[in-house]
Protein 1
Amino acid sequence: MPDRRAAATATEAVATAAAGSYARIVATLIRVTGDWTLAEDCAQEALTLAWQRWPAEGVPANPGGWLMTVARNRALDVLRRAAVEQRKLRELAVLALTGAGDDGPPTEGDIVDDRLRLVFTCCHPALALEARVALTLRTVCGVPTADIARALLVSESTMTRRLTRAKTRIATAGIPYRVPTGPALTERLPGVLAVLYLLFTRGYDADGEPAFADEAIRLARLLDRLLPGRSEIAGLLALFLLQHSRRDARRDADGRLLTLDRQDRSRWDRAAVAEGLAALARATGDGPYALQARIAACHATAVSVAATDWVAVARGFDRLAEVQPSPVVALNRAVAHGYAYGPAVGLHLLGVARGGGALDGYPLAVAVEADLVARQGDRRRAAALFRQAAEAHTGAERRALLDRADDLAPPPPPDAVPGEEWSSALG
Amino acid sequence: MKYLMFVCSDTEPDTDRSDWPDVEAWVAENDTRGRRLAGDILADTSAATTVRVRNGELLVSDGPFTETKEVIVGFDLLECADLDEAIEVARTHPMAREGRIELRPFLNPDA
């Protein structure tokens, strides 16, 4: 079936070219035309044309260049047909677009600046945080509006409105299409990295897995390459890669979430770990992402929970608790110290972390206590605590916690628990 | 772009009082660089008068149009390349720390 194989190759080529070129096409067209919607539409139309033509006509030698040319010509068409009263603006843009064509392919420097411009504009602090996340996904990563809406749990029409408002605001508020320089770059970069972090952590797909992890990693790689020597970018990239390396091992065959100690470490993505460790070697500072990445690296390089350098993990959380104190960091610090220095130390730090009710209504704290109590040997109390923690959950997490409880001690009489768990515990 | 910079009071001023900027120096700097076209300090809201016309009838009342704790105490008219420049101008005004500043672009950027 050579035809079908050629079509499959072409489909793959469109996907690859889209991943590699979408942002630069949109970024360049925005710079030249100043019109965000026109830029997105033309980039999208170029991809649609590729879907139609490449399977029959073959993949062009330079797929990215082909897409850029088609998108640019499409933009020219639209602008040439634009209303007469906008003639002056239109002529300026047409001039710029044809100029870009006459001067041959843009240099790497031009492309680089355009994509960075786009990222810094989408992540501008004068836009609401939710708008920054959505706009970055839509415009820089080319994720369809419907997919963004689904992952962020809003309706498509709400997401469309949010994106339109953000684009309108960029124009009316006077948000520049520019990469800040000097001290302003240092000041703005953490805001950009925070958007990338949200991209990685906020959206979930139907399986409960991060929906935009690949996009976040791609963007972190891009920033790492375009703004070299910035330790926190390398730290964030390392953190993404090391966390993402566990994606295939995080759940069992039934979709249950597995804690680190229960994951099949042979299913961790070694290539992602290696790239993450290489990035981490360049993250010299003690920023929050580099610290978290160093902790993740302790896990990624250990063959088992027992072989993990828990003293290093505990030290990492000590430092993180200073740099970025939060109840969740305090909780994780208690876990790490529990492994490094014994459950009694962990329980002591858990008590400190709970001070002032900081972890009230946080079911994970109960699960952590259960685990520490289990390791102290009080199986019955640990099982009761796991069951208490399970009450706050549904689905896979609830089942995982009930499994832990059942492993430790038989469940209480049947009238106290739903029948299903009772019979499964007996079976 | 033109921005009207509303200088407002705030119930929670900056607690860090070090390196407090001087408003005269701020005015001189931005006037020299052509970024500040006009501006002044306003009298207390107790001197404000609100005017409305409804069904041909003139309604005059004392006080500002809304009663809030944060009030507009002054204004400056800025001419800046973009929002980033306007933010840079606003952040160095002493009222960015004593109060807060709202930047409102003109609807017609060519005005």
Protein 2
Amino acid sequence: MSRFAIQRLGIGFLVLVTIAVIVPIVLVVGTIVVQGLAAINGEFLFSAPRNGMREGGIWPAIVGTFWLTIGTAIFSVPLGVAIAIYLSEYARDNRFTRMIRLAIINLAGVPSIVYGLFGLGLFVLALGFGSSILAGSLTLSIMTLPVIISTAEEALRSVPQSFRTVSISLGGTKWQTIRKVVLPNALPGIITGVILGLERAAGETAPILFTVAAFYLPTLPDSLLDKSMALPYHLFVISTQVPGMPLQLQFGTALVLMAFVLSMTLIATIIRSYYRRKRVW
Amino acid sequence: MERTPKIVIEHLNFTYDDGTESLLDVSSTIYANEITVIFGPAGGGKSTLLRVINRLNDLAAGKSMTGRVLLDGQDIYAKEVDVTALRRKVGIVFAQPQPLPLSLRANIEYGPRLAGVRDKQKLDQLVEQSLTQAALWDEVKDRLNDSGYALSGGQQQRLCLARVLALEPEVILMDEPMSGLDPLSTAKIEDSMQQLKQLYTIVIAPHNIQQAARVADNAAFFLQGRLIEEGTGKQLFTKPKDKRTEDYIMGRFG
Amino acid sequence: MNASITEHKRTSLAEFAAERLIRGSGIMAIVFVFLIFAFLLREGLPAFTEVPLDNLFSARWYPIEEYYGILPLIFGSLVVTIGAAIIAMPIGLLTAIFIAEIAPRWLREILKPLIEVVAGIPSVVLGFFGVVILSSLVRETLNLPTGLTAFTGSVILAYMALPTIVSVAEDALDAVPRSYRDAALALGATKWQTIWMVTVKAGKSGILTAMMLGIGRAIGETMAVLMVTGNAARVALEPGALFMPVRTMTATIAAEMGEVAQGSAHFHVLFAIGIVLFVITFLVNLVASFAIFRQSKRSARLLS
């Protein structure tokens, strides 16, 4: 067989493999959308579950996930952006900085269930927050940090060095320079990173299993120290723990969760490409 | 005319750890209300000297310095010096026009605002005054809210000059400010320099010898980090004493 | 503005506070890693005194009767992860090669975000899909008693690891200088030969990083695995093990932590499993990050 025949065969094989990767993705998303849409209506979205979750809707879980995401943002965004500013604007290339980077790489690699154990040990038990939105948000925040830090740092570093020099040369202090020049220009990138981080937090189940999640709680949370339902955990429960659960409601819940998360990706992508096109430098 | 020393440099040694440009035992005096030209081949230490005078070199990692730089008799590297106040007093214009991604007006107001100027009338007056001094006011007065990037390269560089002037500085450093500009813009900036020296002390590292000879009241020739020769512009460009200066001016190297 | 340059030397309080906070925040990343490890140790170490070691390292996990052998769980994690690696590594590499070297630009712009969509789908959604669709598919096509098997878990995990493997490997291939390929092509190699003998070889350390990160993601995955692997804790060193139900370390913690009494031996053993997981992923990430560091050093050398 000639070298070129081998090449044609090889490339043909690569095309097949790539199709084998893409087709299931389309099938999964497509199935959930098609099957799930049948369940979506006002009652499903805006009412509480009834009859051991086999009827009614998912409103408490939507509200719980919403508050968890907000809570995660409150803790992780200031800290994550501060660490990113530190790494991009202050840190010198020394052993301490390398340790911080290594720590971030490892935070990114810690399994989500281990975050769950950590949250249980520190926030729920040692600090006495109990199983609550507060404990869950804090746990999710730490899990989210690496994503926020690395994307925010990249955004800060992409601001041209000359802007900093100009600001300093005009009598700006380092902090003024960061606040007036670096941060505003890095903002679209930082927002993108924050959304991507929160998206991950919103979809995670393992970290909230023992730190917030209520199996079946048809009421809405009143305070940060309340337990709450959450979409990912609700989907887990109704698809594995509830016998006789109507399949349609399961698909509906999966669709709402997937739409919630993927729409965040979409927003992040739109923000990024809009500002890429708009920026002058 | 009585000459007032503005900047005095005493036995200045400066090196970067990575071995690029350095300065070796440089001593010189820069006089008020004159245009001092520092020139020489690339890598001779011109940019480094300018960045030492307003302490922009503080930002560079890995450097060492000995000697003193005095502004009006005050050691600018002394502990009690407020670096930001120094940089407002000693402004710098870079080789590449570098507007901040803000409107024209915000670019000019940037420095004064950082210095605490809040009064709207004062800011308006600074904008008009500095743009006029930089010979840009007539071209942009109707579009002060446009982005700084909407200007041509020459206009951008005049904007950068205006931005420095808005600080009401005493010394203006110019690091090859006309290197990328068209002849018309160059002429405009050179003209305004002649006006500006009534008010300010100007130190410029021009990008070619013709320009150096055109604008210089005083000139200093730098080669490989050493100050080879200094004197009035007339003397240095017509009757240089040092062979190396002459060779460079005649275009035998560089 | 004629004030002397020494007159106003002062640092504003806000500026001082902001800089302090930022410098202090840097260290928080390190603090969190230590905190995580410390709390795992605090709750997990008692297991080693409360449970005899021969029990702990036995092949029987049956907590109701106080059998805490973690070997079947480690075995379960291994089987599922290796299965996922066998599926995902070649597919991921080949897809990365297709995207980086062969696909035209427009196709690349479609394929890359499409694959990244998978990274965005929550694992519980993929687990759900595994339960309601994939498992019955596996059961019927392979004629098994149940579709909830290690293999089902491996397939789902493989797809979860794919976005990581494809995008990191694609970056690595993309970073191979154009001139390498041109040189090979100029010597008469076909595109196909160039890909394998030059591009893939030159991008090997980045590809290795991609594999490690993908595997790291697979070991730590919890929900999908919990939902589709059937959760039977056993060590089955037989050829068909891949097609039987298993129970992984992550799934065990997730399934049982909710029901144990706080402070009991069972509670502590679950934390001890957390320690094992933490250490494994720590090592995997360490190796992957060293591969990254080496690569960046090499490119820095090439540039200078």
